[in-house]
Fold this protein.
Amino acid sequence: MCGIVAYIGPREAYPILIKGLQRLEYRGYDSAGLVIANGGLNMYKTKGKVSDLVEYVKDQKTSGSIGIAHTRWATHGEPNQTNAHPHYSQSRKLAIIHNGIIENYSSLKEELIHRGYEFHSDTDTEVLVNLIEDIQTNEKVSLEEAVRIALNQVIGAYAIAILSVDSPDTIVAARKGSPLVIGIGKDDYFLASDATPIIEYTKNVVYLEDEEVAVLKRNEELKIRNIKNKELTPYIQELEWNLHELEKGGYEHFMMKEIYEQPRSIRDSMRGRLHAQEGTISLGGIIDYEQKLLHARRVIIIACGTSWHAGLVGEYLFEDIARVTVEVEYASEFRYRNPIIDEDDVVIAISQSGETADTLAAIELAKQRGATILGICNVVGSSIPRATHAGIYTHAGPEIGVASTKAFTAQVTILTLMALRLAELKGNIPKSRFMHLLAELENLPNHIEKSLNNRGIIQEIAKRFQDVSNFLYLGRGYNFPVALEGALKLKEISYIHAEGYPAAEMKHGPIALIDENMPVVFIAPKKGIYEKVVSNIQEVKARNGKIIAIVTEGDEHIKKIADYVIEIPETEEFLIPMLASIPLQKLAYHVAILRGCNVDQPRNLAKSVTVE
Ligand code: M6R
């Protein structure tokens, strides 16, 4: 859950490293540091963000054309300067950066202490670098070989990059469970946790696989071996993303940019898959598994956080449209629950980053038990798509804001396409109705464009409720997951406590919370069991709660009861989750801004959760 960048080549390393860290800051931002090799290993690190590191390094010598850098999200040891990466080995001849967790670090540490090593930080990383040094000293082997031997003794996850005073033109890197991408330039190499720091220099990349060790040496070909010492041929791929997708493009925050990108990102998710005029859907990524999915004994969706909410919408979509039974599980629970699962089951894993540790572990468990695993993922080449049998990329483009927005609607778009494709295969929807549903789906980005213009009323609501301590979000059917997602968005970026509930469950407990200070957000489109939701609104009204309702355009009835209404265009019920979640994203954004919060990098959070 940290960001790694490294560079070796003819250019100055420092600006490349800093820019790279800024692009990776979404992965962690409690401390940052770097080492530039130039004669010795010059290390600079500090608590805080990359901007604090820049300030700290301001008047110091940073020249050199090889370096490694790190932005941290603390796991072992509090976020302070000592625990920040890089870490020196005891002799200060090696410096390491690390993303991941070394699970057996305390036994390794004890052994090293026994052999005279002293430790200055509370990190597992310092243990690893000293282990490598110890091996190199005792066995008189190269740095690459020492790394390989050390990694055979390590239990846990790692992405590492190491510099050595004795090999001043080499970076050794390795991964297991945490991502690493190598960029191959004309006469330079870039290394990073994802491709965002690399894209402006080269589009040619190699995704390092688990238990592989790479040697990036000036003026030499890239060398990769696995930790069993087998030489491997690097597989060079071309990056799909563009540089402009990584910039704020005139918006103050990535989150707002990403909210406004949704008409585009949803169109991209549907491109080449939805053929509304012909009345067909083609999902190339899972074509070989369609029959398996259709005849699965059970379909189980596993995911975390926002992706889990998308999965819940998927449950409604699959059951309602395709008449396929679905269970949705938190990956973190599934992996430890000893679930009953076998080769007749299909698991759909959903993840924006493709790196979420719990989701990856749940996939491995389901795979071991023989299930077929399909993925829905945004980041191409990340770990989850590589761990699944087949899958569909969402094509939402890079999502930098820690709060997921466009990734959520893209995931729901893919689940909608899957549900419709299953219905097409089953032939359980009359053709004319099916054609109509596809046309409505195709038109959804236009509806979203229209509803994105609601800025005035949402800002007014945000102003009115910016100082409250609690919010309740209620919805029924398809809109229950939307309520959960709306509440998650608000709490993670504004730090206001918010809960999502099925509206009818309110009377079984949460209704006790309602008084004149409690804002209650209802997702109440004129579809499904509308009248029942109106009754729930009346129940809140009777207890003086403040009502904010997401309603279908022109709904005069709720307008009379609610304190505030946000209108969304009329559409089919199954498309409302995508439409209704957007004003909730904007509400969370505006409340957070008014409270002075950092919406792109909320406290204690990071974009990809690569630890348990
Ligand atoms: O990358 P993933 O979709 O696997 O991430 C799962 C969650 O960590 C993520 O959705 C998280 O809940 C978001 N920050 C919510 O906005």
About this structure: The radius of gyration is 25 Å. The chain is about 35% helix and 25% strand. Residues 304-307, 351-353, 356, 359, 402-404, 488, 492, 608-609 surround 5-amino-5-deoxy-1-O-phosphono-D-mannitol (CB under 6 Å). The first strand starts at residue 3 and ends at 8.
